[in-house]
């Protein structure tokens, strides 16, 4: 479980509810089924209308991605690339065949297989970059779906409010009920804006951030594979690949090296 997703949702909606309660409101006043149906049903319908079936079938995968805590272990992959480079330099590229089954990173394993098969370096780079672009394009669909829902949510809220006001204005014969009816009408706007800013847009942003981390790792792997294929020194490869690491990760690697050297 990605704890930040859960914490963010709880704090966001909890703050709204607590603030409303502090102003003297009750939680029951915030629950209006008709407004819920208009906003969430309308947002769902408009979002479905915006995408094809193949894209929408991926929504369960994207929801799993949002709530699942999948750590990108840059250091582990970096060390694997350096060890592989050392083995290739000592025993030759064909010696890497025996360790392919032990590599968890599928992108790395496919790249090494191309190197072992003697694929031309330019073709290796091209194929890896195409796979990277395909991955990024596929993940971008998730960002677009939730960002689109975030755009429709407030609009559906306004539509719900307008529909509520139509009902209010058509029943002006009961002035004592006008205040409560208007409050209920504006709840649709509240639902639309809060769902967009506390659910859909943050969901899209989280997919975008996680995808960027995966793509950065794939870029590092691509450069590492091409360096191994070129027969570069493992130490040089490590220094080159460290430039891909986020600053805090890079500092951690440097600290580990100094500890190993007794500095």
Which oligomeric state applies? single chain
Helix content, binned percent: over 70%
> Which blocks of ≥5 consecutive residues have pLDDT under 50?
none
Largest sheet: none
- What is the overall number of helices? 10
State the secondary-structure class.
Answer: mainly alpha
Question: What is the element string, with H for helices and E for strands?
Answer: HHHHHHHHHH
Question: Quick check: average pLDDT?
Answer: 88
Question: In brief, what are we looking at here?
Answer:
Helix content is 77%, strand content 0%.
Plain-language structure description:
This protein has 263 residues and is an all-alpha fold. The chain has a domain at 118-254. Helices cover 77% and strands 0% of the residues. The chain contains 10 helices and no strands. It has helices at residues 3-22, 33-50, 53-56, 59-67, 74-91, 106-116, 121-169, 178-229, 234-241, 247-260. The chain is elongated, with a radius of gyration of 26 Å. The protein starts with a helix and ends with a helix. The relative contact order is 0.15.
In terms of topology, how is this protein built?
Blueprint: H1 3-22, H2 33-50, H3 53-56, H4 59-67, H5 74-91, H6 106-116, H7 121-169, H8 178-229, H9 234-241, H10 247-260
